Amino acid sequence: MNYRNRALLDLAKDQPCMHCGIEDGTVVAAHSNQSKHGKGMSIKAHDNFITFLCAKCHRELDQGSRWNYRDWE
What we know:
Elements: H1 6-10, E1 28-31, E2 50-53, H2 55-63
Antiparallel strand pairs: 1-2
C-alpha cells in the first residue's frame, strides 16, 4: 500500500512551480513516475515523492519528451 498524506499534497497550493518558478494558480503536487518510488500501473507513487509543478511543467513531466528521470534526481 502506498503512503498517502492529504496535508502534504495541499502544501502545493499557492506555491511557485519548482521547475519554472511561475505562480499562476495551477501548481499542484506532481508525483514521481519512477517505480522505485511506488509508481505502478494505474498507481501513483508515494505522496512523499512529489514536487510542486504548474500545469505546463506537470504535463511535460508526465507526457512530454524533453525531460527524463535524470532531470529530477
